[in-house]
Amino acid sequence: MTSTSSSTPFSDFDRVLFSSPTSTVPTSLDRGDSTSSYNSSYFPSGAEHTIRHDASYQAHPDGDARTPTTPSQPEPGPSHQHQHRHQNEYTRQLETFKPKLELHEDVVDDYDDDLYFDGESEDSEPEDRFVNFALVSHLAVRLRDRVPRGTHVKGGIPYPRAFTGKDIVSTIQSQIQRELLINHGISTNDRRAALQVARSLQSQLFFYEVEWGGRVLQDGVEDVYMFLDDQEGGSEARPEMEELPTGVITMLTKCYSPSCTEEDPCYAYACPRRAEEWSQTIPPEILRSLPESEISRQTIIHKVISKEEQYCEDLDIVESLFIKPLRNASPPIIDPARLDEVIDEIFGNILDLRECNRRLLENLYVRQREQAPIIQRIGDVFLGAAAEFRLAYPIYMGHLPLAEKKMRDEMENNLEFRMFIEVGCYRQAARHPDSRRLDWKHFLNRPSEHLQKYPVLLEAIQHETAEGNADADFLKEATQAIKNLQSVAQLRTFQSAMCKGPTAKLEWHNLVSEEFRLSLPKKEPKRQSILFEVIKGEMSYVRDLENFEFIFIKPLRSADPPIIPPERLDSFISDVFHNYKELVAHHRKLLEALHEIQREEHPLIRSLTAAVLDAFLNFRDAYLEYVPHYPIASYRIDDELANNPAFKTFVEECVRNPDAHKLDMKSFIMRPIPRLLRYDLLFTSILDETPPGHDDRQAVPQLLEVIKALGKETEPGVTSAKQKVELWRYNANLVFKPGEAIDMDLLNENRSLIHTGKVLRQPDTGFEWSGWSELFILLFDNYMVMTKPREKDGVTKYHVNRRPIPLDLLTLVNFNDPPTPRSTGLLRGLRGGEKHGDTPGVTSPGVANSPETSSDARAVYPWSVHHNGRMGGLNILYAETAPSRLEWKQKLEEAIGLRKVVQESNKVFEVETLSADTFLIPSIGAGTTSPSWSHENSLTGKVTCSVPFNTADGRPLVAIGCAEGVWIGFRHDSKSMRRVLHLKMVTQCAILEEFGIFLVLADKSLFAYHIEALVPSSPQSAHTSQTPQKLSGNRDVQFFSVGNLAGRILVIYMKKKGLESIFRVLEPVVANINDRTRAPMSLGSRFGLRPGKSEWFRVYRDFFLPSESFDLIFLKAKIAILCTRGFEIMDLIDLKSTTVPQRDDARLEKLAKRCESCKPVGMFRSSEDEFLLCYDEFGLYVDRHGDLSRAINTIEWEGTAERVAWHPPYVLLFDTRFIEVRHVETGRLVQIIPGNDLRCIWDGRGSHGNTSTPGPDGWQENGVNQDAKVHGVMNVAEPVTLPGTGNKTIRAVAQHVFELVPTVPLYLPEPLTSPSQPAYFPQSNSPPHSPNLNPQWR
Predict the structure, then answer these.
(1) What is the pLDDT of residue 493?
(2) What SS3 class is residue 919?
(3) Which residues of the chain fall below pLDDT 70?
(4) Which residues of 774-787 are buried (b: 16+ CB within 10 A; e: fewer)?
(5) DSSP string, 1113-1127
(6) CA distance linking residue 1111 with residue 1063, whole number of Å
(7) Are 1239 and 1233 in contact (CB under 8 A)?
(8) Which residues pair with 735 in a beta bridge?
(9) What residues form DSSP beta bridges with 861?
(10) How far is the C-alpha of 1029 from the C-alpha of 130, rounded, in Å?
(11) How do 859-867 and 150-154 pair as beta strands?
């Protein structure tokens, strides 16, 4: 079809948009059906300018010409027949495309507004890939599928499945508006092109006007149209159309060449993508007057403008294809709470770049309009733009590596986002003429690529600029400014990459020009390189610290199944990584300061000293905590690797992580330590290269002092931590003999190892040929342990040779004896020797234990210590040198002294005096006989019992019994003590406060008194009878016990008859006690001949036990009788009993024999289902059934428990030399209270606090009752002199009566420092030790 002149309404529009030189050739042929059956008379004249209805176009690859062959009216003759054959060929070829071009039935999709252009539907996206909008046949199919049909009335007649002219134009507009906007800049509101296409389809009878009026289609609703196959009454099945409208919309055609792109059009002269050359837009006479250099210059300038236009369009597409769809997506693709953050992290300030380049493009347009057709100056425009670019481009390009990483991470972790990128955005991008370019990575890198082109283009313009043109200077300055901008952007990229990717290898000389380096003084390049290394090293260090979280911590927490058991995971992470987050925060702040200095002063940095010095002052405390903790972290890793195969596999996998640099976990956590040393080396080198007069000549030495000081301050902490790790290793490798294991609390975080070393011991037999034993002593802050090391498979085990000695019970004896030759060991017993079961050493590889000959005259230096416990004694050991013996003495003195100081602040019980000078006994040197108590001599005899109570008026009193009677007085007031009962041989007393009864066992007889008779609380009670009720018959009561059983207060006393124990259970009679305030006055009682009949108690039950009994304890519902058979658990209702512990198991034969040989002294509940049975030498745990409940069968007491007291949750064992306090749940020793002739006079029974029971989690949740529950007595060390009869004097010993009051542990605010220990000696809260209680006589 030739382009003929006609008077259509859009002829001018056609000439401008459809007949432009760049839009006259289609990219492909329309393979639609032949149009020979269509009559050309139906074509509106105006349509010929818009649509070319023949698909027979010839496009010559050589680019010489593209001559469209226009269709003409069919004429008879050969030429027409030839053309008809071609059309039939096209028809046959069309058959292969019918699946793509067939009309779709019942597809009446409404055209909704798309995210990008009006009218696009998501349903159409797959078809867009196969649609060529330049072909009329393709648009016809789209119109058929998408035009909205409905019932329209025309001339009073309703037409179903009809549509209006506006419907047709709107549908076509929705299909082609994107192409028009992108290729020609035509607004989406301009519908003229769509109207021309609609008239072309009307002319080919693709649809018809229902009244067949022949009017030209208008963009309105006046006319109604229908498709031929939509007529009323037609078949439901749509007949397939054999012919489709054909034609080419020239303004929408594309180039056929697959290598043709917008930036690089193909060689064809008439290629639609080939932009109009600048030389074609100016008059020829002006062009001929210009020199070739100016023509070339103007061509480059216009090319720059063209590229700037395309660049701005690409940035627009970033917003339309990525940012807006993400913000408008429903349902949201990314969590709305972090949507803005993700968009900022990925796209950064790319929209700011767009605004900068839009302003640049606008300035270029202004310059083009002002100076057209020849642009005289352009350098000043780019110079101004470079200044504006400096505020935006470095930020974007520096952030680019992080943006790409964030994009990949989000795509990996967010499947919907990945689908959006890979499917949604690419599908939209397919509509773009150059879909190959629409890739997220391409667009993210587009600003960087575009910025790199500016210097090349500006230098090309400058090269073509004539001499004398002022623009040359502007171009030169603009080129240099943009190059500097690139350098700053490269620096930003280097900073953001954090030593990852290609920028990791950059050095200072890579970021500056050769000319700049040569212009500097000789030493300055090296100095700048070192400063650059400081920054680069800090970046690498911060990244490694942050990788703690990503490489190790997060995978450990998220592992399924768990690599480390959940109950240990938090503790492991805390021990290994400790306070690394503090280091990350401090060094991230330092790095930001260094980066800021680098950005401001690059390429010539003056100094980094101030920033680093400020950082050191801030992170000093963090390093003082982290560095000393490293040995502990290393130990935890080694321990986990040795015992957890899954963790070992995990660490090996972490080493293969690219960010791990092939370093294992231990190397990673050690990273902060060498980093501190690196600062010292770097700044020392900087100082060497700093010229005289520079500020760093004074500042750097100050920084070096701070760095070295920090290193020295961490050394004591590291030493202390190494000692702690060494302690843990010893704990893991200690080997006890079967049944002799002791919980020394070595894993306590405050435990410390004071000293270790080798000592010698003389042979046990006393003969030199039996060999000297070599021992390895471990001196902890709570125990001294003698061991024999044995090595096997590279691991040294320490076999405990003797029972560990608590430092509380360790006494230093002699360190001054002269040296002794080894050969003089024949009769070593003459010097005193080792006692109480010394065990001969067993030889082992690596331990010197071979027999020594008499010729061995090497001297050894003896020293001795005494173990004050039950299984202790004198230990004589030998050091190989005199300095070694002296060192042992110093270390032992330090250990004992420090323990006393620390433990004094952490006592479980505090001793408070009840009476210090009231109760006296004759001194041993006074003779075998001593006078009884009298006002003259004041001797009271031995104190045997006590009990606290409150009177009716609330006075706190205490009753103390002794050989000469019972004294009552105020607590803690010795002067108030008065004797109220003149009884002999008082051994036991108790109070029934509910009934006002005082029970006392004197001379094996049990009496009951009214408390009011002893301590009147009112004038009326002073007349209360003091006559007691005797509860037993003959003088044969051994002991009694008071308790509550099933809500009843009972008194049980025991009489001994032969080997049997006879028990009587009494119950108070409340009515008789209250009514009979005075005793019956019979004749015999008045003269003291016989007691009155007891009416205060009634006999509840009698029973006997065929064994000797020592005590009786009330349980919840039963009683426990402590006898020679063990612990007899009896029910008073049916008198059935069970003996515990159970001894039926043959494996417990040895334990059973030991139980029979020892005396039971107490039974206490350790948990809801467990009891601690206490014998005089040991304790053991049993369950409710009396079976052993723990693997370690026995807990050996340090002393011999004459009596045991109970203050929940502590058991107090009274030896004559000390009280040992142990926790009932663990059996661990928590305190030693030394004394002289110690005795328990009240064990807590009868008090309300002792009836408490443990909760589900043990005793800890109940806490400790702060009331005193235990009374004791000890002899004062120094005797006193009392006046006797006549001129004689009596030497007596005062008895110190005291109560044990619980204390709240007070932990030391600062670690203690010993003379030879580092400042980091840790505090301890293990067994507290009270000082010797030796109150002076007053």
Answers:
(1) 84
(2) strand
(3) 1-129, 182-185, 187, 231-242, 261-264, 267-270, 272-277, 423-439, 763-771, 823-857, 925-937, 1020-1026, 1075-1094, 1247-1252, 1255-1264, 1283-1288, 1304-1338
(4) bbbbbbbbbbbbbb
(5) EE-SSSEEEEETTEE
(6) 11
(7) no
(8) 799
(9) 879
(10) 118
(11) unpaired
Tell me, what's the pLDDT at 1239? 94
Residue with tokens 């927490």: 557
d(CA 221, CA 169): 11
Nearest alpha carbon to residue 251 among 33, 424, 21: 21
The pLDDT score that the predictor gives to residue 906 is 82
Residues in the chain: 1338
Q: In angstroms, rounded to a whole number, what is the distance separating the alpha carbons of residues 944 and 892? A: 38
Tokens of 219: 């963009």
Contact 630, 669 (CB under 8 A): yes
| Closest alpha carbon to 787 in 751, 753, 756, 829 | 756
Look at residue 26 and give its three-state secondary structure: coil
Strand partners, 1053: 1040, 1064
CA contacts within 13 A on the Cβ side of 100: 17
Look at residue 1287 in the predicted model and tell me its pLDDT: 63
As a whole number of angstroms, the distance between CA 165 and CA 171 comes to: 10
Q: Which of 272, 277, 282, 271 is nearest to 306 (CA)?
A: 277
Cα(812)–Cα(867) distance, integer angstroms: 9
So what's the pLDDT on residue 723? 81
- 52 near 5, Cβ under 8 Å? no
82, with CB counted inside 10 A (0-12, 13-18, 19+), is: exposed
Residue type, 694: H
Buried b (16+ CB within 10 A) or exposed e, 276-295: eebeeeeeeeebeebeeebb
Q: Which of these, 973, 921, 807, 961, lies nearest to 1324 by C-alpha position? A: 807
Angle at 532 between CA 528 and CA 533, to 5 degrees: 120
User: What one-character-per-residue DSSP string does 634-669 give?
Assistant: HHHHHHHHHH-HHHHHHHHHHHTSGGGTT--HHHHH
Q: Whole-angstrom Cα distance, residue 696 to residue 607? A: 7
Q: How many CB atoms lie within 10 A of CB 820?
A: 16
Query: Can you give the pLDDT at residue 1054?
Result: 94
Structure-block tokens of residue 131: 């649609």
Q: Residue 747 carries which DSSP code?
A: T
Q: Helices in 498-579 by DSSP H: which ranges?
A: 514-518, 524-547, 554-558, 566-577
Distance CA 1234, CA 1331 (A): 7
Taking the C-alpha atoms of residue 850 and residue 264, their distance in angstroms, rounded to an integer, is 95
